[in-house]
User: Fold this.
Amino acid sequence: MATMVSPQAQRYVDELDEIWVERSGLLGWLTTTNHKRIGIMYFFTALAFFGAGGVEALLIRTQLIGPNGHLLSPQAYDEVFTMHGITMIFLFVIPMTTGAFGNYLVPLMIGARDMAFPRLNALSYWIYLGSGLFMYVALVQGHAPNAGWFDYVPLASKQFDPGNNIDFYGYGLIFNGISSTIASINFIVTIFKLRAPGMSINRMPLFCFAFLAASFALLFALPSLSVAALFLELDRQLGFHFYDAAYGGNALLWQNLFWIFGHPEVYIIILPAFGIATSIIPTFVHRRMVFFPLVALSEILVAFLGFGVWVHHMFTVGFATLTTVYFAAASLIIVIPSAIQLFAWIATILTGTPDFQTPLLFIVGFIVYFIIGGLSGITVAAIPFDQQVHDSYYIVAHFHFVIFGAAVFPILGGMYFWFPKVTGRVYHELTGKISFWLTFAGTFITFFPMHIVGILGMPRRNYTYPPGMGWTLLNFIESIGAYILAAGLVLIVANLAVSYVRGPRRDPPYEGDTLEWATTSPPPPYNFPVIPIVSSPYPMWDKDDRERDRQRLDRGEGLLNLGHQTPATTAQDAELDEILTMPPHSAWPPVTALTLAGIFAMLVMGHYWIAVGFLALGGLTLLGWHQHEASAAG
Amino acid sequence: MSWSEAAPRRLRRLLPPATIVTVSIGLTGCGSKQSILTTRSKPAHDIALLWWWMLAAAVVVFAGAVALLIVAWARRDTPGLPFFGEREDLSQGMVLLFGVGIPFVALVALFGVSDVYLVGQTAPPNPRTTPMTIDVVGHQWWWEVRYDGGRVDTANEIHIPVDTRVDVIATTADVIHSFWVPALNRKIDMIPGITNRVLLYASAPGEYRGQCSQFCGVQHAHMSLEVFAQRPAEFRAWLAGQERPAPAPLTARAQAGKQLFMTDQCASCHTIAGTPADGTVGPNLTHVASRTTLAAAEIRNTPQELAAWIRDPQAIKPGDHMPDLGLSSTAVSEIVAYLEELR
Amino acid sequence: MSEIGAEGVPRSATARSDAAAARVDRGRQAQPSGWWGMVLFLCSEVTLFGTLIGSYFYLDFIARRWPPPGIKAPEVLGPVVATAVLVATVPLMWLALRAARDGRRRTTVAWIAAAMAVQAAYLAAQVLLFGHDLRQFTPQGSAYGSIYFTLLAAHHAHVLFGLLLDGAVLWKVARHGLTNYWLIGVRGLALYWYVVGGLAVVVLFTVLSPAL
Ligand code: HEA
Ligand code: HEA
Ligand code: CUA
Ligand SMILES: [Cu+2]
Assistant:
């Protein structure tokens, strides 16, 4: 690897080090546009929100550990489960996958030196942070959103929820959505434009396919949520009547708009997890993915078909049978691309020589839980059955298996897998395995009994339940499981934290197949001293190609050392097209994000003119942003 | 015969022992009052049957996939497929077979059974095919139940004649609720501006518990109901009783209680037919003593629990719309005496 | 494949003159990142309008009378003329774009300025029409009013944003010339107006649908 650079190459590396030198200290982090630093900030922020959402989950489980629990008041319970859902979905999983993993890894995997729009990248982080804090301010002040994460009207209308709890929800999600929109545009352009020469679309790692698909889905799904939230706030604050049946509005308009966003959202959650799985499996199984093209196609199909199924969340609202049947059929069709991927992973593991180290264990756990969650998903796509178990704990079981089991497990595995990349050190393997078994068992014990409780008729979102319903024992087991799960997660974080200080250095830790392993761990700010030239989807297994890269470095060829340079290539065939110069650090992104926070804070408080003032201020910051023009518009 | 038994028992024999242990303990035992598997109507029964079949199929799929993973673990040092060795075409064929072929067949079958055939069962009944109609109106956090277009107005307890197809018209007075009596049928949402209908049918006399299953605010957890399926004669007697206006109070304490009820704020929220009380915020109390439960099946209708409710409803359902009126204990006991006579 | 750093591969940052930028623009095989960014941003905006228009027809579909009793069907002539005027700036933007890609700075500025003037007039007229409508019925009076005004306001906000973009690009191009960066800026601006012009037509037909 690049750790062993020859003396003549060292000269060029030093030169690049100097060009790409980063500001140090707090200011360095505040003004950074380096995708890796931004990824790390995303990571810690999302992890903190995971902790918050986890504490909320433990509060829920402690409240429900026995009948008639009274740890939380009913009002507090409603805020806690609502914030749990919002936190986990909008402030943990999405930022963790796209923000942290995507930011850190996508440029590395495609052999680029940064994202296409580095400053926008920083902006999307700061907006995300702002929107998260915005919603948590509400929690601290005791009026957090309290109508559930899908926030059905008219319960969420001013009439039935007169405080400003829901305003934090409405504006918080619009605020957060800006961040995600910017981020997904950035990912798509990065993947289209900045791939290393030779990395034509069909040679792109499946990880990037997954992120591309998720970004597209996010881009097209979010407007629906933003419009829904806009209508909600117009209704609540200015007395409009989008959702008010008495004035010709319609409560189902909200439900439709929410789920047109909400269902694609769940595939946006799972796709990056698929991507992580397809990165980890080949490395530890020592072979290429079985049926690569079909898997890539399936990833795209899942994202695409996900837009046509939203009514399966509304099977009980009384739509005509024909409508529901159509959406049930679509929900069943979407199983096929999922099943293709699932069996492609299984076939790869089966036909390879798997080395069941911690990251691969998490992926196996993911496969097992995705099957369980997916199968329960099929059962609720059967309309009559769903009409029985809708809004019962059976649904809670379904989505925690697909979300926690299938989306979070790859995140956890990925945390272990790329830890050596980010830190240059390796984690403790035995502790890793123990932490896996704890989380694996904890997940099952927590969420499996929820199927049964749901079938026994326990509705969700109940702050308590009476004894004698047959629910007591199962709820007790679930709560114990949640504590075991929490212990497993804390052990993961502890393992990584201790290994960061004390873990042995090993670089590279394993024979990874994609380009992030072509550079040192941690990578230098410019990622690659010499831009790799790629000829297959498994570039690190093409030893000759990498040898040629090394020779080019020795010769000082293709260094791109006239500023923050990176190559741009054509969208499909990745032919070298242009040399871009990236903008250096900038203080404007956090400032712009601050003005946005000002806008939304003023909107919640109803100071509309001050909000307009902040908007103008935000416009001015964008002018400052363009003081120094860079080579790429952005 | 009860709808729930025969078929599942046959099926359960097919399931691997481990599932029987984990699943059937929870599902059939425990005497749960709200299980979707102890059914007393054809639609609910068919759904339960569908569930058992889906469970069986899911167990097979799950076991098959996990078996592949176990084989992968056992052969972790040997590349290639068992028996066939390193054959990429066969690996791909495996993906197609398990990922496309088998699921496609299974899904088409499931679609046919559930979404083509069974949905008909759970669709709202044809308007003119039901001998009886009941209006159920969701309120935060109780159910208003009306017979004969409002001639009888009661709350939280629905009486129906056994073996009779009843058309329930489900609407709401405020936010979205969902009407759900698992033993008898699917659930149906109650949405402002929309009139939904669902069939209610019981094949055996009995008491069937239901619960609101759409989050509707702080007391969503305490919004239950009871359905009493009665033999037709009993049902007619009950209905006749409910049609009568409230009897005049007999004892002196009850008379005092009535006085208090009319002058304190009770009357502004509750109706008692035949008296000036005509509020519509809370349940109609004309025959409140004939109910077995109070406050949306949250407490039993005993004099003690009724008194506890009137003294401090907020202690029982915090955040409820019935306020704590700060009545003295004599006032409470007099009001209870009055209400106890409203049979 | 051309070697990295070899001659012939444009180094876009060095294109600081009008002519050099135009040469880079012509030399590219693929669209620049800024162009892609604008296309994707516009995808998101079009989806946003799609959702608004979908909501309009959803409410229309469930309503017994649309517009509700007491509200007259919308006036046709004024909005049609105004929209036609806005759409007329699309060719102006196209001309500006062509000039920019040829490296003709003055012509570019002239066409953008002309378009901007027309667009500003359009917005002024629309604001007047909006005020006129507000005196007839309000967004608080019915769901029809809510969606009607929201949809129009959303489009007007996009026109306003476009005017600000016009201004920024004009200022920058006038000051710095058609560097690579601002040439891409002009291309983005043109795309923006094509889409906003197209949306104007769709929005127009949506709000006029009760009168057609
Ligand atoms: C990561 C997120 C995620 C994923 C991937 C899925 C995947 C699926 N979901 Fe789920 N779902 C949620 C998250 C997710 N869901 C959430 C959050 C909710 C609730 C929101 C709320 O109410 O709060 C929900 C709710 C939900 C409902 C509404 C239930 C209700 O509220 O009443 C439905 C109904 O159809 C459904 C269906 C499905 C289906 C068919 C899939 C399929 O995509 C599953 C496909 C996968 C497999 C099937 C497994 C692998 C395949 C095989 C093992 C092959 C063998 C198969 C056969 C032989 C058939 N989901
Ligand atoms: C990504 C999504 C996600 C995740 C990961 C989880 C994780 C968990 N969820 Fe939840 N959940 C939802 C999404 C999610 N959930 C949603 C959308 C709802 C619906 C809300 C609604 O109805 O509106 C819901 C609802 C929900 C309910 C139903 C509440 C109700 O209906 O009344 C319950 C009940 O048990 C529950 C439990 C849990 C538990 C025990 C976990 C556990 O897995 C959590 C374990 C995590 C930890 C214990 C954190 C450990 C801490 C660290 C690793 C960080 C340490 C580091 C620092 C502090 C820096 N969740
Ligand atoms: Cu009514 Cu929940
Ligand atoms: Cu869904």
In short: The helical segments of chain C are 18-27, 33-62, 77-87, 89-101, 105-136, 143-176, 180-208.
